[in-house]
């Protein structure tokens, strides 16, 4: 096993760092409270079940992990507050009537329409259903950065590009 923060191998400790329990080396465990020492265990080799698994088992572990993926996220369209206000007035609803219809406070409707409050996706979906409009749109975010792992697995230190002195 290796340290989850810097990737070094050796004596490891289960350490609580800011409420999260991590497996860290002696140097990195100073950033938290040591909970327990981890004793090395004997590694068990996976036995392939068929020829395809056997071919997969013989392939070396890649030293370079690509993260060139498309991430689809949901976000509010620009001018969502105007769309909400215009559609509400088209339907002849008052702010308090719309608030009752979506089971929210009237002050929330006022702040959303004035642009003082950007609603979370859950609330935006309520506005969409009540007013029969589209204000949530999907956005594609591409990650093109390559992360190089020093070892077989990627550590937090690799992600943050921390170099030990």
Overall average residue pLDDT = 79
Which series of helices and strands comes N to C?
EEEHEEHHHHEEH
- Total number of strands: 7
**How helix-rich are the residues, as a percent range?**
25-40%
- Ranges where pLDDT stays below 50 over 5 or more residues in a row are 57-67
- Radius of gyration, Cα only, in angstroms? 26 Å
Number of domains: 2
Distance between the first and last residues' Cα = 22 Å
Task: Categorize the overall geometry.
Answer: elongated
Number of discrete helical segments = 6
Largest sheet strand order: 2-1-3
SS-based class: alpha+beta
Strand content range: 15-25%
* Sheet of most strands: 3 strands, antiparallel
Give a brief rundown of this model.
By secondary structure, the protein is of the alpha+beta class. It has six helices and seven strands, in the order βββαββααααββα. It folds into two domains: 12-66 and 147-160, no CATH class; 72-140, lambda repressor-like DNA-binding domains (434 Repressor (Amino-terminal Domain), Orthogonal Bundle), CATH 1.10.260.
Your description of this structure?
The chain is α+β, with helices and mostly antiparallel strands and 165 residues long. The chain has two domains: 12-66 and 147-160, no CATH class; 72-140, lambda repressor-like DNA-binding domains (434 Repressor (Amino-terminal Domain)). The chain contains six helices and seven strands. It has helices at 51-58, 80-90, 95-102, 106-114, 121-131, 156-160, and strands at 12-17, 20-25, 33-38, 64-66, 69-76, 136-143, 146-148. The strands form three sheets. Strands 2-1-3 form a three-stranded antiparallel β-sheet, with no helix packed on it. A two-stranded antiparallel ribbon has the order 4-7. A two-stranded antiparallel sheet has the order 5-6. Helix 3 crosses helix 4 (106-114). The longest helix has 11 residues, at 80-90. The protein is elongated and about 70 Å long.
